Amino acid sequence: MIKHYPFQQIGKANHGWLKANHHFSFANYYNPKRMGFGVLRVVNDDWVAAGTGFPAHPHRNMEIITFVRSGAVTHQDNAGNKGVTLAGEVQVMSAGSGITHSEYNLTKEPLTLFQIWIEPNKQNVKPRWGSKLFSENTDTINNIGTFHHTDNTKLPLLVSGYPGEQDNALFINQVARIYGGKIKKGTQFTHSIEHQAYILTSSGEFELIDNQRAILMNKGDGAEVTRQKEITIKALSDAEIIIIDAPAQ
Which of 45, 138, 177, 181 has a CA between 20 and 30 Å from the CA of residue 70? Predict the structure, then answer.
C-alpha cells in the first residue's frame, strides 16, 4: 500500500533564515494525523541561509541523521565532536543519555538538507557523532561499486543498525536502514523492504509502481509504503532518492 504526500501538502515554516518543510508534526507545525511513521519521528526538508544555523540545543535518546543535499553544515557538540559535512555526505548523531550541539551554515551559499529522527531501540547510550562521504560516482545506481548491498537492493546503503553492516554504513541504535543515491533517467529497479518504508524525492521525478499502479513522485514529495516486501521505482528524469526502512513500532 502506498500513501503519497505531495510537497505542497506537508507542513511549512518560513523563519527567514530557515525555510522548513515538515513531513511530520514538528515544532509549531502540528498535524494529529502526521505524528510519525512507526519509529520514524521526524523528516524535515530544510533550507538554511548562508551564515546562519541552529545554535546550541540539547537532545536525548534519538538517532538524528542529516543528509546534506547542497552546501555544507558545521557540527559542534559538548562531547568534543566537531566537523563539516558536505553535499553528498551523511552525518549521524546518537543523542543517547544527552548531548548539546549546534549546526551552522558557515559558507556563502544556502544549505539544503534532510534531517531524519529515528527512535532508538536502546536508551541512554553514550552520545556519539560521525559523518561519511559515500561516493563521488553517482552517474547511475548500477555503477556504484563501493557500497554494501543487501537483499539485492540496488540503492547504496547509507545508514544501518544491523550487525555486520557497519563497514560501509553509518551506525544507528535501531534495526533500520536508510538507502540513498542518484539515478539516471529511464532507470528502473525493484527495492526490497524489510519493515515499512518512507520514500523521499530529493531531486527530479520518478514513479512508484505498485500492482500496475504508478504514483508520480516530484521533488520534495514523500510516500509511505506498507504491507509489501518490495517496491518498483522508475526514474522519469535524473533523480536523487532516499528510502528509510524502519520498524512500525
Answer: 177
CB 100 within 8 A of CB 77: yes
Q: In degrees rounded to 5, what are phi and psi of residue 113?
A: -160, 160
Residue 4: strand pairing partners: 223
CA distance 58 to 35: 21
Q: In one letter, which amino acid is 1?
A: M
Sheet with 53-59: strands ordered across: 53-59, 99-104, 72-77, 82-86
pLDDT tens column, 66-95: 999 999 999 999 999 999 999 999 999 999
In angstroms and rounded to an integer, the radius of gyration of the C-alpha atoms of the chain is 17
* Number of domains into which the chain is organized: 1
Q: Per the confidence metrics, is the pTM higher than 0.70?
A: yes
As a whole number of angstroms, the distance between CA 246 and CA 249 comes to 9
Which helix (H) or strand (E) element contains residue 63?
strand 63-70
Chain position carrying cell 544527552? 98
- Report the C-alpha gap between 137 and 116 in whole angstroms: 24
Distance spanning both ends of the chain, measured CA to CA: 18
Q: What number of other Cβ atoms are within 10 A of residue 126's Cβ?
A: 9
The C-alpha atoms of residue 46 and residue 182 are separated, in whole angstroms, by: 19
Residue 45 CB burial class (10 angstroms; 0-12, 13-18, ≥19): buried
Greater pLDDT, 149 or 236 = 236
- 68: domain CATH number is 2.60.120.10
Identify the residue whose cell numbers are 559535512: 85
Q: pLDDT tens across 139-192, in order?
A: 444 433 333 333 344 799 999 999 999 888 999 999 999 999 999 999 999 999
